[in-house]
Amino acid sequence: MKPLIVTGTDTGVGKTVVSAMLTLALSGIYWKPIQSGIQNGTDTKRVAALTRLSEGHFRPERYLLKEPLSPHRAAELDGVEIDPGNLQLPNDIASGRSLIVEGAGGVLVPVTRAMLQIELFTHWRAPVVLVARTQLGTINHTLLSLEALRSRSIAVRGIVFVGDAMEDTERTIVTLGRTKSLGGLPYLKALDAESLTQAFAAHFKRRDFEAPDG
Questions:
Q1: pLDDT over 90 for what percent of the chain?
Q2: Beta strands 110-112 and 115-116, pairing class
Q3: Does the CA dihedral 53-62-115-78 come out positive or negative?
Q4: Ordered structural domains, the chain, with CATH
Q5: Contact 173/142 with Cβ under 8 angstroms?
Q6: Rounded Cα–Cα distance for residues 3 and 22 (Å)
Q7: Strand partners, 181
Q8: Which residues are catalytic?
Q9: Which of 32, 101, 175, 182 has its CA 20 to 30 A from that of 93?
């Protein structure tokens, strides 16, 4: 399989929408191993609704936690112990098939009291797509996230910018962060399979997201 991790500079930056877009564009399989917050539905169900892909394009969460909090705290409130050994990549995906793995929150979010999410990324040995806002504050958040990923020798494919284009901000991040802009996803009037497919065709290149078999 070809795993690709989608993470963000913060929560709410657009990881789920980007993951849906990539699942469509790569005809991939979507997996969110830890879901924190289920009152308004899960991200897996949202991606399924956005893409209208069949059930075979999705893998179930390993942990469903009630509260929209960092996984370590949400698990404690639910009386659940997250076992890192239960967070291995799915082993039922054919060679050559893309697996889109959506992380929870930012790269340094605690999964347990003893493990950060970035440690999972290191263990999975898969390239990362970093999703970043274009709004004020994104330079600091994005460069810090890149620094953390680089310190763990995690391969970064590049950045997907979400929001209104900010040319100088994006150029500054790419230059100082020594990385690549994979493209920008503008705010869309409608969020559905058609709009995501059109946005990918207009603003991205498939080859930038194609990972080697892992």
A1: 95
A2: antiparallel
A3: positive
A4: 2-208 (3.40.50.300)
A5: yes
A6: 12
A7: 159
A8: 32
A9: 182
